[in-house]
Structures are given as C-alpha cells and as structure tokens.
Input
Amino acid sequence: MKFGRAENSESLDVSLPNDHPETLDWLSKYPKLAQPKFKIGLPKWGKPNLENFYPKGTKNPLLYYSSQFNSLEFNAFFYRIFKPEQVVKWRDNTVANFTFNPKIPQIISQFKRLKNVDDYVDEFLFSISHFNEKLGTCFLQMHPTFSPQGFTDLQRFVERWPQDVPLAVELRHSDWYDNQQVNVDLRSLLKENNIAHIITDTVGRRDLIHMQLTNGSAFVRFTAANNAMDQHRIEAWVERLKLWHENGLQEIMFFAHIHAEKESPFIPANFVKKMNSVFNFDYHVPKILSE
Output
C-alpha cells in the first residue's frame, strides 16, 4: 500500500494520538465482553507476494493461508466483481471460522464515486453473499480526492446498504477530519447506520489515525514502516485495544500492509503473540519459515 508512504520515517512521530473525546463514551453503550472477537490477516494470499511464508511445495496457498490467519482483507474485489461459482470455490477452500472481508469495487467507489451505482452494488452483494457464514465486513475505500462535497452521495450509499451485511468506511480527504462540523456529521451518519470507521495507520498520513469509533468494531489497516519502530507501533496498538475492550469494544479487525511484501507475515505474527498475552487469547501464531 503506497498510500501514506514517507521517506526517512525514522524521524517521524508515529505514536498513537489520544482517543477522540466521544470514543469511550460510545463504547460504553455496548456490553462488556470477556473477550472481543479477533480477526487478523493480510490483504492478499498469493505466493509471489509472501516470501518466507509458504512451505516448499505448497499446492493450495489459500487453504494454507487460512490455516495461519483467520481472516483476509480481500482486495481482489476492488478490481472486479467475481462470479458466484468462484466465490464458492474460495469459501470451500478455507478452514472453518475463516472470514473474507471484500473491498467494494472501484467502479463504485473510485470511478462513479457512489453516484448511480445501485446495479453494481446489487451485483456485488449477490456475489459476496455466496461466502455465506464466511463473509466478514465489507469495506468502502474512497479516493483521497473524495471530499465532504460528496457527503450526500455517501449518505445515500450507507443508508441503502443492507443492515445485515457489516460495512466499514475509509475516507482519505483531510477535510473529513479538519472541518469540525463535517466530522460531527460524518460520525453521526456512521453511528446511525452501524458502520465501522476505518482507522488507517500509515506513517505519512497521521491525520487518518482519527481514533473515532462509530460502532462496536475497531477496523485497523496497519501499514508498516519496515524499520524498528514497527514493533513499538504494534505494542501501542495492543495497549489501546485493551483500553477499548475494557470500555465495551466488541470486535477487533487488524490487517497488515507491508511495502516489502516478503515481510508481511512478521508483523501480524508479532501482533498475535502480543494479543494472546494481553487478552489471554489462544490464537494460532502464523508460522514464518525463516524463524
């Protein structure tokens, strides 16, 4: 994920900001769970992208991937809407309790910018419905130039979205966060429609770590800096998620993006170790062949 990449990132302050003032109050509306749901994964599973991950001779990468991670941020849907029979093959080629989190196609989000997209949305929803119980949270990522001038289009889109299909939204134009009234209206829209507000942790766009939760889920897209600071960033996230859980957080979704893709498995493996320790989880730690 090139978005938000920064040169000389070692000199940047990448600490997590304080929570938005409304976040803990909002979480208090939810029942406190002994343990939150926890999903961990990468944006893709292809062999060429994941060195030091697949054992030699692996013939079924998706099945192996699903044995190591319990979720996938499914970016392939961004480029096309797949036939139902292909979705069924993917679904049946993963272990039990695995979830796919398909990215809403760019024809909807980037090219048409949410205008006149009902037919595309219906086609997409029909396709992903074939994931059945393995369908996780869909996510809508808008172009960085999509500003609050498109608020009405965003409102229509989320209000039409079916309530039984979890949705998360990522907005990248700075005005969504710099303009106080716009930000109030955005949070209200997402809360009223039970939509997760994606937090994008990338070193070159610290404004997108808004720490504004709008339902019971924390959907975090983490982009590594590929240096020593990444471990400190991971530890900070574990502590913040622990605080949120203590105040009512229901679900954690954490997806790691690494510029040097061969390093991808290391970040979530370390994250799972930390989460297991702090939350008393017993999640499988992804195997890294070079360890």
Notes: Residues 229-246 form the longest helix (18 residues).
